């Protein structure tokens, strides 16, 4: 217990230096701006702003990216409230009551409440993170390659089976991702695999290129549709952005209830912020004395999902940091960034790089506070970005995507790869194959194969090593359940359609 | 053709090609000769099976709901914009080294901006494109010290 506080104190010493404060604020503001763009969420924010961090040290880069991540979460709900267009899936629930509030002249209260709820949700979740992260990583350190391989399969199959209604499509996406990861020189034997004689491919396809292609190129292309649809008129003049005492009285309990819910759902691979916020919303609606007010500008219906959303974004970092397995597209991007910095997220991160790991945890507190400060009083200024037409902002995001890819490999071959993967992403969306499992596959694919082959060489080629330890057996059970779960879910849903379908439909790859 | 069928056919063709490709990979000369091949074989095999599953689901759905009306290939406005952007991106990749970052980027951004923002706003299109290119160039070469290709003849 004591060492947790000592470590955290050390983390705060890292996070509270003026330099780090500057980076987290800058990341937060830029993330908020990207997050506010319709259709673009935290994953895009981190992917596009990544090159900014290339020359920073690992700690600064990581903290900046966390700022971008939280900023984009905060920003997503701004556009939900003001123009009824969620910045990303997780901000969807904020449109239900946030937009009606803005239309009935309560935009100030809505903006303030979404900021306050996010802040409280994020802070409490960060406290929970402090107590959970270290024990989980201590447990995972005992894993051998066979267990580690199975753990990765378990996380991937949970994501694949939960990301969309159809489990087969989720797995298709996951395997495509794993295949992309096999391109290049095999590190253990020096065999060229799927390089087609192209020298640049020997180093493999950088996962960052796939990430930027899917989240920057693909998402922007998808958002082109919104350019033609007319724009909703937005309120640009605001009074004092704050809430009343009655608002607070009504909301503090829902916020406290939704935070742990969001945190737990966020920590599960595949579930993510969209599901967390929609569940929190449905929950409060059922608990409310007057559920009919929901959807008409009930402030509780805004506060609860916002708290859950931010709590889940903190929870989602747990599997990524402690196990090295990202549970959502956004955390996959964060993990890609960590790998790029030469840090291997996983159980060893907390022992090998305690300054980075705990600095990051501490920066969650600092980052959430700063974003609260930036977003509540300054909301009126920041939302001006929303009045800049997306027609101008989207090309800029594209420009940033290309410069980012160039900065990674200094090669224009990567441009073609990016265009290719961007189109692949669009094509997959067209036939309703989710892209998030593919991203996860690309990121963990390399490590997964290494673990697979290590396990087999330990056992001299016998596959029985994968069922030897009790941990392996329980992981196999989890894999089986996560494959069967959607089938059962569908069966139950066909029995009581309206209830379950209403929120199971909403999730979208846990972006 | 419904989405299951389309996804299934695409996936199984890709899976099969990948599996054959994996089988054709050179065997390793060190350690287990199958070392680098086994894992890709697994991946390819499973993806092919998943593709076939998707095809079966597609056929079942077709039986239940009847054959979906085949929509003619229609070029939507969004599709056109995406095509223009991709073409501009390929052009960007081709000119990047030759023209240098600032010129190539300005050109790329202008094409996309004119397509998205319309000719009417030509002034803001050009201003944003050029300002973005110069801004990013200065940021990268001076602050982040990542060298970008320079313009021909001029060292900027």
From TrEMBL, chain A:
Keywords assigned: Membrane, Transmembrane, Transmembrane helix
UniProt keyword annotation of Acetylation present: no
Domain DUF112: 21-440
Matches recorded under Pfam families: TctA (PF01970)
TM region(s), chain numbering: 20-40, 46-70, 109-133, 139-160, 167-185, 205-224, 321-344, 356-380, 392-409, 438-458, 470-488
Residues of the signal peptide: none
Record-given protein name: Tripartite tricarboxylate transporter permease
Automatic annotation (TrEMBL), chain B:
Transmembrane segments: 7-25, 37-57, 78-94, 100-116, 128-148
Cytoplasm in keyword set: no
Organism, as annotated: Anaerotalea alkaliphila
UniProtKB keywords: Membrane, Transmembrane, Transmembrane helix
Coiled coil feature spans: none
Matching InterPro entries: DUF1468
Protein name from the UniProt record: Tripartite tricarboxylate transporter TctB family protein
Domain of life of the native organism: Bacteria
DUF1468 domain boundaries: 10-149
Pfam families linked to this entry: TctB
């Amino acid at each position: 217990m004591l060492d947790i506080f000592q470590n955290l104190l050390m983390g705060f010493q890292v996070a509270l230096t003026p330099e780090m404060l500057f980076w987290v604020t800058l990341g937060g503001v830029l993330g908020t701006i990207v997050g506010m763009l319709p259709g673009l969420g935290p994953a895009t924010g981190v992917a596009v702003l990544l090159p900014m961090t290339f020359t920073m040290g690992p700690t600064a880069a990581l903290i900046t990216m966390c700022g971008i991540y939280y900023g984009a979460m905060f920003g997503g709900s701004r556009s939900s409230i003001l123009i009824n267009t969620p910045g990303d899936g997780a901000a969807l629930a904020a449109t239900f009551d946030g937009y009606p509030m803005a239309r009935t002249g309560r935009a100030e209260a809505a903006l303030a409440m979404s900021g306050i709820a996010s802040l409280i949700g994020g802070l409490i979740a960060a406290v929970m993170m402090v107590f959970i992260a270290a024990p989980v990583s201590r447990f995972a350190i005992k894993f051998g390659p066979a267990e580690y391989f199975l753990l990765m399969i378990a996380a991937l199959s949970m994501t694949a089976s939960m990301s969309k209604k159809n489990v087969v499509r989720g797995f298709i996406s996951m395997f495509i991702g794993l295949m992309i990861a096999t391109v290049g020189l095999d590190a253990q034997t020096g065999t060229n695999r799927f390089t087609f004689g192209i020298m640049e491919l020997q180093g493999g396809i950088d996962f960052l290129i796939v990430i930027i292609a899917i989240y920057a190129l693909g998402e922007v292309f998808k958002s082109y549709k919104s350019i033609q649809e007319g724009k909703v008129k937005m309120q640009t003049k605001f009074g004092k952005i704050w809430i009343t005492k009655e608002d607070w009285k009504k909301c503090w309990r829902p916020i406290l209830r939704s935070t742990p819910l969001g945190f737990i759902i966020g920590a599960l691979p595949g579930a993510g912020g969209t599901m967390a916020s929609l569940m929190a919303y449905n929950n409060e609606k059922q608990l409310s004395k007057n559920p009919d007010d929901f959807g008409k500008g009930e402030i509780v219906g805004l506060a609860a999902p916002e708290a859950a959303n931010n709590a889940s974004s903190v929870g989602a970092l747990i599997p990524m940091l402690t196990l090295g397995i990202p549970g959502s597209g956004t955390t996959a991007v964060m993990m890609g960034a960590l790998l790029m910095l030469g840090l291997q997220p996983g159980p060893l991160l907390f022992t090998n790089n305690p300054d980075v790991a705990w600095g990051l945890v501490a920066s969650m507190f600092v980052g959430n506070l700063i974003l609260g400060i930036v977003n509540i009083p300054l909301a009126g200024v920041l939302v001006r970005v929303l009045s800049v037409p997306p027609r101008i902002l989207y090309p800029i995001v594209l420009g940033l995507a290309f410069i980012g890819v160039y900065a990674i490999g200094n090669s224009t071959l990567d441009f073609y790869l990016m265009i290719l993967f961007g189109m692949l992403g669009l094509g997959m969306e067209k036939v309703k194959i989710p892209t998030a499992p593919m991203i996860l596959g690309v990121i963990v694919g390399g490590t997964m194969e290494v673990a697979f082959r290590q396990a087999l060489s330990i056992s001299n080629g016998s596959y029985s090593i994968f069922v030897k330890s009790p941990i392996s057996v329980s992981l196999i059970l989890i894999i089986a359940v996560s494959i069967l779960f959607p089938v059962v879910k569908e069966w139950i849903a066909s029995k009581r359609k309206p209830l379950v379908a209403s929120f199971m439909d909403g999730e979208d790859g846990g972006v | 053709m419904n989405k299951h069928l389309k996804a299934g056919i695409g996936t199984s063709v890709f899976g099969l090609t990948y599996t054959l490709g994996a089988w054709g990979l050179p065997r390793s000369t060190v350690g287990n000769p199958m070392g680098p091949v086994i894992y890709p074989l697994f991946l390819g095999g499973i993806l092919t099976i998943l593709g076939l599953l998707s095809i079966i689901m597609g056929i079942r759905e077709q039986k239940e709901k009847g054959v979906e009306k085949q929509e003619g290939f229609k070029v939507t406005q969004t599709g056109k914009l995406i095509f223009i952007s991709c073409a501009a991106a390929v052009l960007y990749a081709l000119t990047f080294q030759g023209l240098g970052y600032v010129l190539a980027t300005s050109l790329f951004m202008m094409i996309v901006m004119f397509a998205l923002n319309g000719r009417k706003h030509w002034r803001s299109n050009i201003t944003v494109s050029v300002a973005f290119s110069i801004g990013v160039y200065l940021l990268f070469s001076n602050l982040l010290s990542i060298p970008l290709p320079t313009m021909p003849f001029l060292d900027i």
